[in-house]
Amino acid sequence: MPVYDRSYRRWDGELKRRALRFVPIMSMGVKNALGMKGGWFFTLLLRTFMVVSLVPTLLLFFANYALAFRPDFLPLGFLGFLEELRPYRAIQYPLLTRLNILFLMVYTVLFGSGLIAKDRASGALPLYLSRPLTLADYVLGKVGIIGWFVAAFTLVPNLVLWLFGVLADDRAGAFHEALPLLGPIVAQNVTAIALYSLTILAVSSLCRRPMFAGLIWFTIVVFLPTLTAGIGARLGSHAIPAASPNDALFALGYDLFGVGELYEQAHGPARGDARFAIEGVFSFVNPFGKTPPGWCWASMAAWCSLSLAVLTTTLRRQEVVGDSGRR
Amino acid sequence: MSDGAPRVIELAGLTVRYGKNVAIQTLDAHCPAGAVGLLGPNGAGKSSLIKAVLGLLQPSAGSVRVLGHEVPRHALEVRRRVGYMPESAVAFPGMTGFENVAYAGSIAGMPRGEARRRAHEVLEYVGCGEERYRAIEEYSQGMRQRIKLASALVHDPELLLLDEPTNGLDPSGRSEILELIRDLGHEKGIHVLLSSHVLDDVEAVCDHVLVLARGELKVAGSIAELKARYAGARVRLTIDGEAGGAARFLELAQTRGFEALLPDPLDPRECLVKLKDGVAPQALLRVALESGVRVRRFVPRGASLEEVFLETIDPTASAGGNR
Amino acid sequence: MSVELSRVSHWYGPVIGLNDVSLGFHPGVTGLLGPNGAGKSTLMRLVTGQAPPSQGEIAVFGERPFANPDALMRMGSCPEHEELYDHLTGRDHVFALLHYGGFPAAEARRLGERAIERVGLAAAAHRRVGAYSKGMRQRLRIAQAIAHEPDLVVLDEPLSGLDPVGRREMIDLVRELGASGRTVIVSGHVLHEVEKMTRRIALIHRGRVLAEGTLDEIRRALDARPHHVRVATSDPRALARLLLEEPGVVSVEFAGGEARFEVKEPAPFFDRLGRIAADGAPEVTEFEATDDNLQAIFDYLVA
Asked: What pTM was estimated for this model as a whole?
């Protein structure tokens, strides 16, 4: 037709069915998070932080790489100790998670505290809810967003380290030796992802200001260990520290990777400097050995269920009552 | 309302309760095809009705059918075909206007490329130019309303639910949005349910109305029919010149047996005269000629929508009205 | 004149809010109109003494309003977006602000009660403001504005959030305030409703005054522009043939069952039309000038 009709046109396309409805929420969320702006100082701080947060991962990679291919990179004494550690290399996985936890918490607060809070503040929830989406899709999408970032500091470096370890070790049967490690790696890190995503989302759904949500979550996660450790020491119970999410996570790692046995095996024959070095490395993970794993699993389950409950209740309430009516 | 016409929304015995608070009480109503206005005082149950139509709440009793689908059981089906423009200031945070509309399309289930293409098309239609690339937090009220309308249209719904679409808009903005809605409702064949307190908007856009009060249906019908039913014949006249002329005219009219309703206190030259049965309105023009005044406006009409509304909500409190 | 602005200009950084505005407000209701961003809120802020004008003079009852408690006592304002204290009850809210404003407690209570009655909040005054609907909050804001019986009342969109019953009540309230001799400045976007409150308007656009006065005066000043008259009739062309004999008729358009005339001299035209309609040949069912309402004048001046 020669003249273009600028008025409203109908659309005859097909709307996608159920399956992947949460994907747009996830991809838009990750895009927004990565494009976060806040002035030059904030950006500088963020970039520096991002670089620094890669240090533990890179260090471990370097150590593995050096051990495997370039032993001459390492100073002599240090080398000796690492060689001692090689049979017990399973330790590096819970160690890496332990080392990354601080960075992980900051990233969770940074990218996760606004996920639902900002939607509530800007009134986006009625827009979501009037679309052909269920609340489950919405939550799944949001979990996906923060899940990406958490995975980037837990599951991904662990898996890549594992892969590297398998590829770099040219001994026969190395693969079969490394395979059983995969289970614990996935178990501990997926738990971490679920725990962190669900808890930050739950807190975010309760607030309209991201900073508020972030502060609350950070306070709980950082101060709870002190509280539970104190109470546990008072009551002489080792189970109480399991209430703190981080402590429970590390204790799970201790149990899953059999850190206790590894320590015995490594510490026993070690002599001199190597002994101190091994003590040093294991000191990050050993203290969590006293908490019984059963309690840890229970605690994880409780935190995740609580978060899900909070999420569902708050969001359902938003559905019906809504934040509107003001202004 | 004519039976046999397709029913866009059907409510049968609908009851909505929030705890002990009853928002809607056994409501039986239906919206015919076309543009329907939803009116009612605050607390009448309009927002609960809209939430029920979107499938956002489980009715305590009764049923809701929208476009042939039962809700909330098939809520997702319904929401594929319904576009909702909320009253409050809503937007997806941290995105430009265009991204807002495209995102709205993609979470409705449109493939990404289509959502973007269609977003541009719809933004063009609602009159959003280069501003679409600015962050939505910077938008004026007029732009926000347009983006909301565009987000509601992007997935090409069959039914549009509009809640106070002219909120906060200046007179030009109001006429533009109303023009768009009129176009969508009448020319493009999209069903419209318009909830508003501004009766002028509803009169301008809709053909039918549903009036709710305290969770019950007070009145439902076509606007033309209701106006005729509620006020009977009256004529609005504006007299040219000074006020004395109008007074003369009214006096003469009264001696001829016409009843003059309350004049407009702001301008006594605006007259509202009730007709006698069987008398043609043009008789009043003869009266005007006799009293030597010039008439600038001669409009026989039924009541204004406002009069219908006030009459149905509280029949005891009806005054003559002045428009 | 209660409020007088003389050559007032006001800017925010590089953005100009009002540009050399000279305007006067008399007792009674004046509608303040204009597109969004035209300068209405700026004008209201300056008149209620929230900022001194960058240039020019404002006199409210003869005094400068800025930082002038005496002048401020004589005025009440209801801005469009005003936060309320959600935790107070309606009654306490009105009372508190009156009391802090300097009224002794008993007086504040009495005035507060009266204001609450007047805006129709008596039934809900004991409930927390946080539980109020949008319309109720609006009524509370208006109660605040009129409680201390000010001589000048400035209302920015007083009908927003109100349902049709509330709108009618508020329109009546505004008219009452004007009729009682107060100076009321009202801004609104639904022109049909502003027309019900007053016939006197001031139209602002891009920081300048486009028009000031009663609708009649403004329309007459625009008389150079032809009037548009719409006539519904059974035989538009026959009617047109008759009316085109009038020299003042500039053009005629046919649409539906109507003939639309453009007329330069309305008086003889309406005389003739009235006679034709009274005679009934051809039958005329309705006629009106389509552009002597506020919407038409606004569109013409602002477009």
From this structure: 0.83
